[in-house]
Write a structure and sequence with these properties.
It contains 2 helices and no strands. Helix content is 65%, strand content 0%. The chain has helices at residues 14-45, 51-54. It has 55 residues and is an all-alpha fold. It has one domain. The termini are far apart. The longest helix has 32 residues, at 14-45.
Length: 55
Amino acid sequence: MDVRAFRFRAYASKTTAWVLETQLEVACRLYNALIHAKEQEGEKSKRTMGRSELR
């Protein structure tokens, strides 16, 4: 029994690419802000924040 695999490359339109880049930028900024908040809290209270406290 032969198994064939096909690969297709999806090309996004300019609008879709812009939206995806914007979402990635927002996610990166949010992640960095949470890391910064965790570091600031650790310096302030000498303890780290848990995952539930970051929400």
